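assembly run, all chains below
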Amino acid sequence: MSKAETKELLNIKNLTIHYITEDGTVKAVNGIDIQLNRGETLGLVGETGAGKTTTALGILRLVPNPPGKILGGEIFFEGEDLLKKSEVEMRHIRGNKISMIFQDPMTSLNPVLTVGEQIAEVIQIHEGLGKQDAIEKAKKMLEMVGIPGNRHSEYPHQFSGGMKQRVVIAIALACNPQLLIADEPTTALDVTIQAQVLDLMNNLKKEFQTAMILITHDLGVVAEVCDKVAIMYAGEIVETASLEDLFENPKHPYTWGLFGSIPNLEEEVERLNPIKGLMPDPTNLPSGCPFHPRCPKAADVCKKQMPKTTDLGNGHKVRCLIYEGIVKA
Amino acid sequence: MHKYVFRRLLMLIPVLLGVTFIVFSIMYMTPGDPAQMILGEKAPAEAVERLREEMGLNDPFLMQYGRFVKNAMMGKFGRSYTTNREVFAEIFSRFPATLQLASLGVLIAVAIGIPVGIISATKQYSLFDSISMIAALIGVSMPNFWQGLMLILLFSVYLGWLPSGGYGGFANFILPALTLGTSSAAIITRMTRSSMLEVIRQDYIRTARAKGVNEKTVVNKHALKNALIPVITVVGLQFGYLLGGAVLTETVFSWPGVGRLLVDAIKQKDTPMVQATVVFIAVTFSFVNLGVDILYAFVDPRIKSQYK
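ok done. output:
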């Protein structure tokens, strides 16, 4: 049981995932490190196309192949490298120890199977229960996410968007996973429903001591739910810090930019200060630091030199030449 | 559901009116005189004229059509000009042959098309996929009558294994059923493949994989049922089409079915027989389609909830 007692649950080292297409190689994830302890929640924040979803699919080894390919790195989960596991071993982990909630509840459920069947399936696979017992447990899971158990025999189209996302959450939590990956779980929902779903996830996470990676582009959601934050840009993690550190003392110019894009009620500002320019094309990333074309602090050296990770202490890490003492802040 | 079926049956009325009107017009406008045909080339002109008057062929077009509709509503489609038998009795005596051939053809098509389509989709761009897609392309491109002739040439003339035509034992079925089956199989293969390819990319398939479902179950349980709807449509259309008598194939293999009955009736300008056959084909086709629509409800609960 020594493995279960260690604090560390997930340790991703130098993970690289590319999509190799005829039109060029999409460099989706470029050497990222993520470290997560049991029961902790990490917010993975970044713009659309930063490689967040690819990272998540990479952890479950569900990157569509072809064209996607995990080119290198290690993903240690409970001390074992997931990239070295066989497909059969991975199937025992998916939905059981690691489960995932996808972005769009409208399309994540199979339209021709009842919600009860869809929840029961994951229970049958991993807990070896018979069909009847699994359905009974599925009903309990439905009750837990706030849906009457007797609706288990209904089909997804008979539920609203928020309800469907609850069903998806019930599927993800049915086998009491160690790690839950939630890929923008509230983006497709109405604002009022968003708050409900977040509350629900927060409560269930505490109840079951589940660690979570919450993928989002919404810093408000991060502030509400996360213990620590990783900021992702063009397939790299440019800054990691505890929630307090990141909000009070952001270091990376990109993180500054993200905060500048949020309206602030307390300050009187004429207009928002969004980050100039667009995310670079991942088939053709700029040389040096990938953020340099949009960076207000960029110097000539940023075009050539790739920044290394600088540890600022207390788990606060940043990838910027400013903190290597090469560029003036 | 009952209401839905009833409404669909009501819709048959305008369909049949349209179909009969068009066929009646074509038969009216094509050259040739049924009275002359009945009495023979050498019959005296007065006799022909008398028969024309008797048969109502001298009446205006709309009057003739109206009389046809009126009789048809009372179930009277008349007698064949050539055999003088009740037309529907003739059709019903021919139908079993067509039904057997069509069923066997569709069975072959489904047995080949669906599995090959599924494997092609799950192994996209593999050697198997390329070969089956080329085969399917050949299958849809080959005209039935030509394929039938080639099969006769090979298996009946050169090898002498199978009879070249006629109706009777199981051996007689093989070549015509194969002819019908291969072209339908090609269409069903292509449809299954493209439908599966679309479904396999859906988010709920990713959800199933993320649950730890094995690939076989992902394909057979999660993907197939969703991919089946367009496939059922095509199978239904093919079956409906074959039930109406595969005109060319039945002719090539001298198969005593509805299709050949129609061809012979057209050749002899046997208007009542042509009319009745076409009505019969339209009704069969509509019923098969209705059956397909009802089948949808069992596959997709979203469609079921619309059949109110």
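The CA atoms of residues 52 and 147 of chain A lie 30 Å apart.

Chain A touches chain B at residues 60, 62, 91-96, 99-100, 102, 104, 107-113, 121-122, 125-126, 155, 157-158, 168, 171 (CB under 8 Å).

not gonna interpret more than that til we talk
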